[in-house]
Amino acid sequence: GAVVSQHPSRVICKSGTSVKIECRSLDFQATTMFWYRQFPKQSLMLMATSNEGSKATYEQGVEKDKFLINHASLTLSTLTVTSAHPEDSSFYICSARDSRNQPQHFGDGTRLSIL
Amino acid sequence: AQKITQTQPGMFVQEKEAVTLDCTYDTSDPSYGLFWYKQPSSGEMIFLIYQGSYDQQNATEGRYSLNFQKARKSANLVISASQLGDSAMYFCAMREAFRNDYKLSFGAGTTVTVRA
User: Fold this and answer.
1) How many angstroms separate the CA atoms of A75 and A33, rounded?
2) CB count in 10 Å sphere of residue A13
3) Of A34, A86, A113, B36, which residue has the fewest beta carbons closer than 10 angstroms?
4) Which residues in chain A have Cβ-Cβ distances shorter than 8 Å to B97?
5) In chain A, what residues touch B44 (CB-CB under 8 Å)?
């Protein structure tokens, strides 16, 4: 089955640091990748949609300059949390699909803790 | 308006018993799909079952079955013969073809705890 690898699985860093999270599709070409944020015991909130080779589309209320998304190839998308602060601490999870009507395949998520 | 509603924040179920998780949805898109995912405490999203809006029969996958009632806009998940490993958070999600460009909308989730 389709596999999506997300790295790192956990990161703890100091306030003010920028953190990069990678999302890779291992055995298919991901024309579209999605980034979600999840608070404890809550649902997944879509942050942005990225299509290979074009700018990401952000959901309302998500700061583009805070959460930089790059989808430079058909197998890799990155989310960079810039100048992270404690309120950015959360679980971030990516998903990928190869075409519009195909299922999304999820990575295992990244637990980000900002001290 | 909420597209996906899961009204049960948490449920307890006895091992080996069946449990039904409720999900209602709201869409005017004629073409949509309904998904159930399991999220254990480790965080990964595990796909369980899918039902397409045009599917005539209810979807089944092993111990999971989806009770699809289109007129009522409900897509309840039934887990039969519960196991301790079924303890997790369960999300219902919908994908709309035309109104939301095939993106997923998730419900609030239901936490299931299986007791021995």
Assistant:
1) 9
2) 14
3) A86
4) 101
5) 106-109
